[in-house]
């Protein structure tokens, strides 16, 4: 409290005493004890009212003891069960929970990880992937400003995500790995990786790359075989030694039949191999009769064109060709979709030929677009021309219903450059993205689609979306979300298929260690997306005849179902709408590949390096007591006393008001009792 405030309080006391003495010492008619009682009550009332006006502030300080945190991250993947370590995990966790000394010193919390990182309520050891890097990064973010030594209970075998040894380099707390499994090196041959295209074209050859690994000390010989049904389509001899432990095979296979072609790759096991599951792997290729051909017509060179090519060709079913306007005239009929990038008057003959051939188009405008020409070259839209430029950002129309669009973070993407002016679309259309300036919708569409008499067109107003692809990679460490967005748009624009009220999207085949999702869109009779419908999918295993019905869940402007619970096999499905005679059928195949069965033992060296790099220490699951003692005895992990200082103004003290009311009430009752009122 400041000196000035203290002086005000003293002055308030003096004034209150003076007024009380004046009112009941000189002017009062009462005598004896009543004069004193009224004077004291009046002094209290006046003094407390003046205190409220002065409103002094008081400081209060509270002290709390904060324990150091001890997050325990538990590997919940299937490899723990494959290595026979589930009992060791349970026994180790029981030791942690029952040790009073450890729990008195630390605030212990438990988390599990597999595909994702979450608080642990129970362990199933059935997750199909292990992402140790994500678990460590999440724990680092969760406890980044706290003392939090971290226990990681795992076999160290990661199947998904970044290298966790690299991720742990920025970890701010020591890591104590608890190693599940042994360090014994068994003799083993395995298929480390198999790479191939998802799609191939009929009567072509498609490449296959296989990486084979050997663990052992003696020279060995084996044979690598690829079969399709009962037929052997590729065979070669391979040899390994202690110094030559890896081989990469590159070969091609013939795509001779249309449809899903399933293959089995195997390296013949040695007589003394412990794990023979990792010697074989199934893979599949969908053979299609022809590709979706996309033509990009542009007179200029721009980074957007590279982003378009990468995004479109990320799906092997699509090809992209680039032509200048003069070169495009003779080949337009070879393509299902023509993308016109920033057209000007040199595109006049291209527009005339497109109208003649009734080709689907996607027009992308920017700062080099000749809008005087473009306004007259087509009848779908018109833009007010100006010499000023404008930077605009995108906002997704959540009610867009032409096809399913996922929000990939459009609001956070860098602005695109366009010419200032109002864009008016004069035909029936649906805006997918709207333009915003400083977060405010300016009334112009950024991306809109149109469909007239079976011909599909789109207008994208804005250049510089190559930055969107780069930002998407920075946010998700993958180009997939942006590429899928462009791919879905191209798929819609390149098709002349008549629109149905129920559109279902699925893959021909899935690997059972990856997400297995099928999405659908349902439209009412006016072809407006209906989010009130109830969609179900009936899935039937063609071998066992077992049929299962799943509800499809609403996700913004589409419905989706996750079928990861299904075992490997071939399935037929039917998506139906409740209370409507509308359905759509298809089929898919789930290929069996359990990546968690590929390991023989724990990755002990890497876990030890992680511990060393973070000033921690690695222990085996049977060394639980040693780990607990190391944590309890470590003087770096101490309780922290925290003080919190609060400044409380007197006006917030409710009891003061109660005292004023009490003093006034007491004076009134005394006067009433003595007949003075």
From TrEMBL:
Q: Which SUPFAM superfamilies match?
A: vWA-like
Ranges that cross the membrane: 6-24, 36-54
Q: Which UniProt keywords apply?
A: Membrane, Transmembrane, Transmembrane helix
Coiled-coil residue spans: none
List the PANTHER family: BLL2462 PROTEIN (PTHR37947:SF1)
What's this protein's name?
VWA domain-containing protein
């Amino acid at each position: 409290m400041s000196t000035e405030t203290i002086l005000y309080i003293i002055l308030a006391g003096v004034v209150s005493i003076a007024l009380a003495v004046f009112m009941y010492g000189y002017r009062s008619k009462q005598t004896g004890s009543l004069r004193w009682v009224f004077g004291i009550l009046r002094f209290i009332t006046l003094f407390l009212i003046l205190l409220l006006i002065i409103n002094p502030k008081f400081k209060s300080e509270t002290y709390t003891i904060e324990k150091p945190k001890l997050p325990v991250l538990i590997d919940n993947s299937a490899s723990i069960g494959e290595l026979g370590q589930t009992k060791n995990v349970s026994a180790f966790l029981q030791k942690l929970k029952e040790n009073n000394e450890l729990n008195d010193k630390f605030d212990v919390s438990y988390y599990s990880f597999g595909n994702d990182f979450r608080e642990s309520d129970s362990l199933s050891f059935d997750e199909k992937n292990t992402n140790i890097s994500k678990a460590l990064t999440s724990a680092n973010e969760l406890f980044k400003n706290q003392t939090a030594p971290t226990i990681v209970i795992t076999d160290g075998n990661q199947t998904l995500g970044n290298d966790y040894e690299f991720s742990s380099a920025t970890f701010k707390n020591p890591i104590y790995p608890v190693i599940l499994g042994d360090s014994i090196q068994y003799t083993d041959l395995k298929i480390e990786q198999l790479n191939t295209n998802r799609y191939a074209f009929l009567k072509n050859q498609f490449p296959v790359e296989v990486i084979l690994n050997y663990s052992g000390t003696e020279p060995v010989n084996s044979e690598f075989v690829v079969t399709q049904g009962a037929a052997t389509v590729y065979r070669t001899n391979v040899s390994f030694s202690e110094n030559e432990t890896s081989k990469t095979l590159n070969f091609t296979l013939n795509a001779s039949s249309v449809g899903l072609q399933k293959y089995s790759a195997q390296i013949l096991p040695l007589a003394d191999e412990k794990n023979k599951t990792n010697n074989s792997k199934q893979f599949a290729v969908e053979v299609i009769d022809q590709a979706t051909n996309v033509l990009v017509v542009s007179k200029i060179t721009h980074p957007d064109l590279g982003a378009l090519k990468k995004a479109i060709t990320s799906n092997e079913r699509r090809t992209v060709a680039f032509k200048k306007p003069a070169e495009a005239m003779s080949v337009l009929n070879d393509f299902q979709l023509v993308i016109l990038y920033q057209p000007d008057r040199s595109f006049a003959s291209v527009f005339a030929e497109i109208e003649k051939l009734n080709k689907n188009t996607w027009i992308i405008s920017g700062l080099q677009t000749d809008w005087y020409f473009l306004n007259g070259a087509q009848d779908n839209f018109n833009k007010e021309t100006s010499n000023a430029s404008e930077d605009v950002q995108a906002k997704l129309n959540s009610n867009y219903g032409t096809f399913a669009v996922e929000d990939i973070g459009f609001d956070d993407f860098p602005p695109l450059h366009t010419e200032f002016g109002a864009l008016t679309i004069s035909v029936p259309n649906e805006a997918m993205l709207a333009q915003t300036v400083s977060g405010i919708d300016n009334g112009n569409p950024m991306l809109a689609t149109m469909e007239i008499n079976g011909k599909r067109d789109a207008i994208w107003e804005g250049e510089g979306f190559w930055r969107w692809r780069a930002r998407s990679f920075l946010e998700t460490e993958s180009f997939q979300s942006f590429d899928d967005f462009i791919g879905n748009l191209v798929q819609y624009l390149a098709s002349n298929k008549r629109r149905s009220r129920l559109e279902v999207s699925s893959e021909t085949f899935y690997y059972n260690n990856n997400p297995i999702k099928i999405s659908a869109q349902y439209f009412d009779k006016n072809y407006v997306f209906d989010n009130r419908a109830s969609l179900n999918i009936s899935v039937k295993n063609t071998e066992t005849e077992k049929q299962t019905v799943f509800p499809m869940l609403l996700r913004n402007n589409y419905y989706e179902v996750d079928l990861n619970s299904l075992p490997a096999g071939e399935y037929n499905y039917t998506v139906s709408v409740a209370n409507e005679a509308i359905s759509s059928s298809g089929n898919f195949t789930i290929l069996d590949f359990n990546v968690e069965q590929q390991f023989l033992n724990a990755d002990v060296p890497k876990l030890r390096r992680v511990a060393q790099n973070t000033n921690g220490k690695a222990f085996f699951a049977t060394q639980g007591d040693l780990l607990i003692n190391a944590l309890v005895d470590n003087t770096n992990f101490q309780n922290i006393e925290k003080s919190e200082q609060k400044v409380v103004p007197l006006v917030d003290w409710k009891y003061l008001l109660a005292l004023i009311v009490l003093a006034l009430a007491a004076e009134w009752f005394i006067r009433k009792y003595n007949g003075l009122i």
